[in-house]
Amino acid sequence: MNTVIDAHNISKTFNPETIPIYAVRDVHLHLERGEFTALVGPSGSGKTTLLNLLGGLDKPDKGNILINGVDITSLRPNALIDFRLKNIGFVFQSFNLIPVFTARENVELIMQLQHRSKSEIDERVKILFQEIGLEEKMNTRPAQLSGGQQQRVAVARALASKPQFILADEPTANLDSKSAIKLLDIMAKLNKEENITFIFSTHDPRVIERARRVITLVDGQVHSDTRAIDTSGEHFIPIDKE
């Protein structure tokens, strides 16, 4: 496998001008292409902050993050936006779909920003809605969709740009068991068939049991890092730290 994300000694603090609170502290992390990884830990452990740093939605106070060899922490804002657009897909806990757009329009938007042709967009949208099993809901607005359906549309939107990896922040938190399992099935299938790297922040045992690597954060630091030794995800071995 090839390293897709390489984070060196990254830290992020809040209230740096008074009493600094470390959300992430001195984290070293290497993620390989095709991994299906869960970031776990108690509330306040730094999971979402670390995910935002890896995705370039926030910037570390120190350290650097390389994605495919590109140091995203040194990119200017416009270059960073362009880099995210081409390389990273995001799935948010609150879906973040545009309410006045149809499901189809929400998925199309990112490809329009990439200036793709109408024929290419139409073909990609057709494939994605087949993948998520919502072909009949393409012209429906988010308010008329269930939570599980909205999250599946959010996954399709994340996949629209053909990203190399997807960051998902508590993607099953607002879903019932049936919807959560369906969503995980879709993401596991895409991970296996298209070698898309998935990184989740989660409390959900249903996500954790599917993960093939589990990174546990405590007080903003990596407490443990284990990788599954079989395809069930039930047996894990520790990963050697630097």
Automatic annotation (TrEMBL):
<dbReference type="InterPro" id="IPR017871">
    <property type="entry name" value="ABC_transporter-like_CS"/>
</dbReference>
<dbReference type="Pfam" id="PF00005">
    <property type="entry name" value="ABC_tran"/>
</dbReference>
<dbReference type="GO" id="GO:0005524">
    <property type="term" value="F:ATP binding"/>
</dbReference>
<keyword id="KW-0547">Nucleotide-binding</keyword>
<dbReference type="InterPro" id="IPR003593">
    <property type="entry name" value="AAA+_ATPase"/>
</dbReference>
<keyword id="KW-0813">Transport</keyword>
<dbReference type="InterPro" id="IPR015854">
    <property type="entry name" value="ABC_transpr_LolD-like"/>
</dbReference>
<protein>
    <submittedName>
        <fullName>ABC transporter ATP-binding protein</fullName>
    </submittedName>
</protein>
<feature type="domain" description="ABC transporter">
    <location>
        <begin position="5"/>
        <end position="241"/>
    </location>
</feature>
<dbReference type="InterPro" id="IPR027417">
    <property type="entry name" value="P-loop_NTPase"/>
</dbReference>
<dbReference type="InterPro" id="IPR003439">
    <property type="entry name" value="ABC_transporter-like_ATP-bd"/>
</dbReference>
<dbReference type="InterPro" id="IPR017911">
    <property type="entry name" value="MacB-like_ATP-bd"/>
</dbReference>
<keyword id="KW-0067">ATP-binding</keyword>
